Amino acid sequence: MSQPLFQEFEEVSAKQWKQKIQVDLKGADYNEKLVFKSRDGIHIKPFYNAEDVEKTFSINSPKNWQICEKIFVVSEEKSNKRALEVLTKGAESLWFIISSEKTDFQKLFKDISLKDTPIYLNFEFLPESTFEELLTFISGTDHQIRLHIDIVGNFARSGNWYFDLKKDHEILSKIVSKSADFKSVLSVDSGLYQNAGATIPQELAYALAHANEYLNHFSENKDLEIDFIVASGTNYFFEIAKIRALRILYASLASEYGINEKCYVLAQPTKRDKTLYDFNVNLLRTTTQTMSAVLGGADAVYNMPYDAIYHKNNEFGDRIARNQLLILKTESYFDKVSNAAEGAYYIESLTQQFAEKALEIFKEIEAGGGFLKELKEGIIQRKIAESAKLEQEKFDKGELVLIGTNKYENPEDKMKADLELFPFLKMNPRKTLISPILERRLSERSEQERLEKE
Predict the structure, then answer these.
(1) Is residue 13 part of a domain?
(2) What is the pTM of this model?
């Protein structure tokens, strides 16, 4: 006969817990000793209970998540061969980066089951004629192709439109009008803001305002679905809450337009904390970051190889990155529970706070004329730069630690002879309409100094 296990125990309130802690602190200040003040404007308490969660949110998390492989398409034949190989080695979806308007999709997708394999297509150009060719190719075909076209993101990243504001929007409108056969066409790369140094509330607000430009433009398309490309940062629990907050914010915004409230999230690790020296530590960083993405409710996760910032694509790095995800999925059972973070007081509280703070910033952007207007005026760029500067100062002082780079460095570690790629921000002077948002790793300056001394 079963009995209630905890009927003999009285419920302890947050006030009682705090009183007990203050007694044990023996006069030390509770807020100074135990409350952590994050750069995101969130104060982290030493404990959380039901009183910290005003309400729980119903979040449209996927029932399962996919292991994704990213492939840069230079040769269709080689990329096709690579795609077929990785699908036999554990990859479940493919993320192609298309660099040429003359891409032959017949060769690229040869022998790939488009019905069973989710495909993400990112274009390094605005694909007007290429889209028409793709449309012809997939006509009458059952497929899971999602297009990631982002003219606003290109404007923010490069400082210029592909052509100009009017023509870019005209081409995009043509593509969207013919996109019924695709799962999605529009994307928002919020990783740009994260990798440039934005705080989590800023990143969420900019992603939302960025998406709002599209929702406003295509408000008549009630089946519109937007894909978000998210970069998972360094704070494990914060990043879980970030993706949850993104879904809540987008659902709230989409409901105002009467549009599909679901969004699709493709996650990958941030580049901001990746290091050139003691690069094996990047394996640990990407593991926790992909875990955050999975527990936060990403639909698909791509894992950056540990040596991606300085090595060209190689079989070993790609295999290790893929195996990290396979271990999470098949050995650690991270695919067994949907919305696993639901009900955790700490994460629920973070989710709520991030959503509230991001919404405040979003409202300020809209009151100021919208995302594009603030980009043109340099407001978004300035605020990200201010946040990035504060984070950089913490790193430079050693308050923000990257093991092997600004703490426990190995003075014998040499990297100059191993560089296959330029691992730093490239500054190519050119004329732009606005100041572009620049992605920069935290350790770049110190690494350049060490390389000069080798």
Answers:
(1) no
(2) 0.95
